[in-house]
Design brief:
11-stranded mixed β-sheet, single chain, 384 residues, 12 helices, alpha+beta
Amino acid sequence: MSMDFRIQIHNAVADIGREAWDACASPFGDPFLSFDFLDACEASGSAVPEQGWAGRHLSLVDETGRVLGVMPLWLKGHSQGEYVFDHSWADAYQRAGGRYYPKLLSAVPFTPVTGPRFLAHPDADAAPVRQALLQGAIALTEQLGVSSLHVNFPTEGDWTAMGEAGLLLRQDMQFVWRNDGYATFEDFLTALSANRRKTIRRERREAQAGLDIRVLTGSDIAETHWDAFFAFYMDTGARKWGRPYLTRDFFSRIGATMADRIALVMAFRDGVAIAGALNLIGRDALYGRQWGALEEVPFLHFELCYYQAIDLAISRGLSRVEAGAQGQHKIARGYLPSPVYSAHFIADPALRAPVARYLDGERPAVAAEIDAITAELSPFRRPD
């Protein structure tokens, strides 16, 4: 890669443009890093300065103006919609007289999905692009005088490289279903203990009774489906968080530009939609995102979010289903713990030192918990 390059800062991915952004992002096959998804977050009013998400995206350009790499980056006025929880750090710093917000965050808004955060053009050398973008983000942190830079849900390789560059490393877990070459859902059930097979079959029967469950993708998804799904989403958000993040326009935008990468699982009773789950389809994974229901049906959440996702992943030959953050109830449905990562640059040594000590204790504890859950709670049959 030419060493004659510069970092540019952009308030929206639209300022970089679809062609330049996707030239760097598309090779990864990650739907959340696509121009269309990120632009929908911004253009719909979901991730905008008024909501505490001010774009400060980075591009790395050479002497001819060609974009060699990009990095999604936000100036955040809070820690909502991130799924890596630093509220205690913010509270402690502010009690000590510091100003934690705003901060810089590299992530996909409202999306706890692992993926690259330093997106290099295929013609560029990835390692120097990552180094230049990371140093650019750190320099912007210092230039703006903000407290910190956070990179949430990077790949393990990016995470390791950021640790080598001096960032503080954090580890957590999510629950992931992995496809062990199953040809059918029944093949998957065969791999489970007898009790778990029996329970899942019963849950599916009860959830499906009297319902018409459909998986919609591509041109099968109409605006009426998005109307129904948005009602589900708003109901779930109101009950769980108080203020849903995504606007109705967001769903229309991804429906118009990404329909072939969307699997919308909908449950109908007498022709009326009563529940739904939104999945995005990656190159090798199915990503479960939002869900909601306007009618209480036993086990319907498990059916739409977990079992239908497994069915779809098997039928498409995908290697895994990532069903989002938290939820130990996923374990009994075949989703086992897997590490996820974040990295943190904290400018003030008075905050950096105690956070570093905390993370040094947290990482091995999380790793031990992953091992213990896998050994003790796995629903899969034990080897004879």
